[in-house]
Amino acid sequence: MSADHLTFLSEVATDLQLSQPSVQGVLSLLAEGATVPFIARYRKERTGGLDEVQIRNIRDHHSELQAIADRRATILKSLRENGHLTDALEKRIGACTDRTQLEDLYLPFKPKRQTRASKARDKGLGPLAEKLLAQDFGRTQPEELTAPFLDSEKEVATAADALKGASDILAEQFAEDASIRELARQHCQKRGVLVSKAIDAESADAAKFRDYFDFSEPLETLPSHRILALRRGEKEGHLRLTIDLDAGEVLGVMRRRFITAMPASPAYEFLSTAIEDAYKRLLAPSVETDARLVLKQRADQDAITVFAHNLRNRLLDSPLGTRPVLAVDPGFRTGCKLAVIDPTGRFLANDVIYPHTGAGGAAQAAEKTRQIIERHEIEYVALGNGTASRESETFLKSSLGELSRRITIVVVNEAGASIYSASEVGGEEFPDLDATVRGAISIGRRLQDPLAELVKIDPKNMGVGQYQHDVNQTALKRSLAETVESCVNFVGVDLNTASRHLLAYVSGIGESLARSIVSHRDEKGAFRSRRELLKIRGFGAKAFQQAAGFLRIREAESALDNTGVHPESYAVVEAMCKRAGLKIEELIRNESTLQSIQLEDFVTDEVGLPTLQDIVHELEKPGRDPRTAFQTVEFREDVHEISDLEESMVLEGKVTNVTQFGAFVDIGVHRDGLVHVSELANRFVSDPAEVVQAGQIVRVKIIQIDRERNRIGLSMKAIERETAAGSEAMTRGRR
Prior knowledge:
This protein is of the alpha/beta class. The protein folds into 5 domains: 9-109, RuvA domain 2-like (Arc Repressor Mutant, subunit A, Orthogonal Bundle); 116-308, Tex N-terminal region-like; 325-518, YqgF/RNase H-like domain (Nucleotidyltransferase, domain 5, 2-Layer Sandwich), CATH 3.30.420.140; 520-620, Orthogonal Bundle (DNA polymerase, domain 1), CATH 1.10.150.310; 642-734, CATH 2.40.50.140. The chain contains 29 helices and 15 strands. The strands form 4 sheets. A 5-stranded mixed beta sheet has the order 6-5-4-7-8, with helices on both faces. Strand 7, helix 16 and strand 8 (408-412) form a beta-alpha-beta unit. Helix 10 packs parallel to helix 14 (266-315) and helix 13 (248-258) crosses helix 14 (266-315).
């Protein structure tokens, strides 16, 4: 952020409805190089306790205002150099805060390629256009005004040629009027209708867009997911999209604005024709382009927001924790790949079993699996949800029931595991292992700690997006990276076990320092204190300030190094200990003593109540994982394929993706079912994310099965109704 970071302080505060001191604190901290997670967590006094979303909004809005100011300066410079800048125009441009309106003001003077109007001006027809626009020639016919402008060498041989050129000049002038363009845009947004028609309705590839073969909806109510679907259909050549708009209102305004002559006069007819040409040939196409751009931007933003929300829930899915795991990557012909993972995520052993190939394979597979489980004292099996998943689950349940210990089989979403297994990251971690084994390892680690494993995969490969390849890729990449960063710092990172991929997302670290940390750890052994980070080349005081609070050391020299208390606040904790007459280890988890501390006594110019409250909260439950407790989904035993489904069945499933039109739920048939937004609850739901989250376990009822298109319709509100009805019946029974 530039040195003039406070230039738009009041505008940002007003536009976002935040206090100026809070906005000033954020902008100053960003200018100092602080990260968003650090500001939100450790600088609450300077921001008034703003969260990460508010801080990013401040940053982004400030950047937008700066970009507009830069563009304004460029436009003013161009106008000044070309001699077009007047005091009135400069004033209008200076007051303009909207990008589109700014470009509208510049448009009439903007250097452009040759147009019909510019060619007419080159032929000397500008004065004729001005005279016609002045409308002061009474009953004289427009043709009678053209004599001085006829010149066959300039291809103006007739009166018709001259009038045509003059009309072209006026049409461009009318179409480039800033107020008219704004009016036309607003009219299009409020009254425009997007119309979709099929180009090749009989094509098999077009079938997925058949809901849009003869479709129309007002722009104002068109939801973002539908915009993206329509655009994809158009891009693939199956749909033709147009915007239907009644031009009457805009044409009426243009006539009243530019025509002063009476309707019966020759000037009226000429100018009216020029206005219609301006609208149809120049203004309407431009307005439609702008409207489609607005739709695209709106749809992109909504889709990116949905993607980031789903990604956050996926990354923060409940971790199993430090338990040994047997990972199973299921398959039919190629067998099920097994990988044993120790409690810290370290790979121990691998094998392959063939339970689905017949010829005694199931018996051999069962025996081999039982031996592996006994040898490594496994209690949890991580089973990928891909091909042969349900069949493998049935095999495992029947085979492992003979064991003395209870084995829990957890179905794990394996989206992106194959990408990881063939990636440079996978090859770097396990250079001597086959890609199929790497995939199994990834599945097992996802069960132990989803966040630690999924950071190694491009978020776009996790299956939680909505038309992700159709949206602005730069904006998407930035949003997803920030989401990962937010999640990593929200949970905290074990400095001695974290991969470089996880460390790279810690506030202030990045890829280069992450590699240096891992190299130092491999060379010198485990870190015993956070301060040891300062011994790493390139890890300076600034990086330490930003990162230290988010890093944990389990068996550190100081117990505070395994908490979210920042090293800059250790002195405060020591002062609390001195006041209580306790050692640091005795104060930690001592809730009664911590609750009795008078925090006001420890307030200083640098440390305020928000920080002190955070310190006490952290000391009460040091190193607490903020993610929800681990739980598993129970798929129905007799349901493996879509062919096993029947309407009215009630099943348990896990939400895999939440979109604007509903939620997708894995019910164990290799194909997620859709709970449409109208079926989520017995009330109006505007945003599905209000009701469900990715990773949530839910009960659903099957209400529709479309085997031709491989689609499953589910309902949650039906379950809600039945539960409510049952409760009411029980209440009546008691009476």
